[in-house]
UniProtKB/TrEMBL annotation:
Key words, A-Z: Flavoprotein, FMN, Oxidoreductase
Tagged with keyword Oxidoreductase: yes
Taxonomic lineage of the native organism: Bacteria, Bacillati, Bacillota, Bacilli, Bacillales
The name this protein goes by in its record: FMN reductase
Keyword Oxidoreductase: yes
Amino acid sequence: MRIVALAGSIVGSKTKTATKKVVEMLENKYPQHEVTLLDLADYTLEFSDGRHYFEYDGDTKYVTETIMLADAIIIGTPTFQASIPATLKNIFDLLPVSAFRDNVVSIIVTAGTAKHYLMVEQQLKPILVYMKAQIVQPYVFIEEKDIHRKEIINDDVVFRLERLVEDTVLLAETYKNLQANRDAKYDF
């Protein structure tokens, strides 16, 4: 199974810290799965201009194709101005409407205060549902006080990330098995 961890911002370190922690957990607990970290700060992406994702070149093509080939995606995003960053929105715009059909998507959010938790409910989840994602419902919300010097210092956050990883893999494996059973009913 292919799992992509997407750090959805080109600035800051908190979301990258949480996303890297998730990659570490995945690699340690599920070495049989292919795990890819896509940190948007490491790529030069074009702005969406309406073309199909496979018509782009370079980093844009690599990032979009890697996401499209994934069985599960863990999206890490900071909260900027009570919203998702433009870099993450651009990823969604680069992909087709049904990009996440038959994919499990889970969410990690970093924010300065607890007051920004509604961003996930009012903005991010509706986008993911529109793009046909199977969303792991309990997302992990991490406040600024939970990370210090690029380390997660709140044990509860670590436990919630571990649970998110387990839930993501379990749901993705279950969903793949259901699809295989459904496909086995047909002779072609």
